[in-house]
Design goal:
By secondary structure, the chain is an alpha+beta fold. The protein has a domain at 51-165: minor pseudopilin epsh domain (minor pseudopilin epsh fold, 3-Layer(bab) Sandwich), CATH 3.55.40.10. Helix content is 31%, strand content 22%. The chain has helices at 13-16, 27-47, 51-77; strands at residues 81-85, 93-96, 112-117, 126-130, 138-144, 150-156, 163-165. The longest helix has 27 residues, at 51-77.
Length: 167
């Protein structure tokens, strides 16, 4: 290091003009840290998704697929098919007009109940699924009995397939 002592080199003007090194983070480093924090937060948010709502949505999709399958089998065979709840409990239902064990007859998740509803919004005993290709507008309200109570509506207008709609 140059000093003012005899024999020491003097600082060159080039070194005198060199800027002092600033301490801190660069913009790129800050962006990388923020991106890592955002990905970790998203991962935690997805991991904490409400499993009760997810199971209700799965049951709604499954019931819509079962109703459409029964509707297709009814049209193919020409037999009248009805979907209704059975007295074995809130978790059991049946498809009249189809061979036994043709389709599942219970919910996969516990605490799910259903209520068939006619086109005018009044509760009904059963849904008529065929054999005509065009049926009356019908819907089923499925409810989760686990707190907090949630519900989904599976509906058709008679032309379109059964699908999950908002409650």
């Amino acid at each position: 290091m140059p000093t003012s002592a005899a024999g020491s080199k003097q600082a060159s003007p080039r070194n005198a003009r060199a800027p002092a090194r600033l301490h801190g983070f660069t913009l790129l480093e800050l962006l990388v840290v923020i991106a890592i924090i955002a990905m970790a937060t998203a991962g935690v948010g997805l991991a904490l998704r409400d499993s009760g709502q997810a199971s209700l949505e799965r049951e709604g999709d499954r019931l819509a697929a079962l109703l459409e399958s029964a509707r297709a089998q009814s049209r193919a065979s020409g037999a009248v098919v009805r979907w209704h709840l059975t007295p074995q409990g809130p978790g059991a239902f049946a498809f009249d007009g189809l061979p036994p064990d043709a389709l599942p007859t219970h919910w996969m998740a516990e605490g799910i109940s259903a209520q068939p509803i006619a086109s005018d919004g009044q509760p009904t005993a059963a849904l008529q699924l065929g054999p005509e290709p065009i049926i009356a507008a019908q819907q089923v309200l499925i409810t989760s009995n686990t707190p907090p109570g949630r519900s989904l509506r599976i509906a058709t207008d008679g032309l379109r397939p059964f699908a999950v709609t908002s409650p």
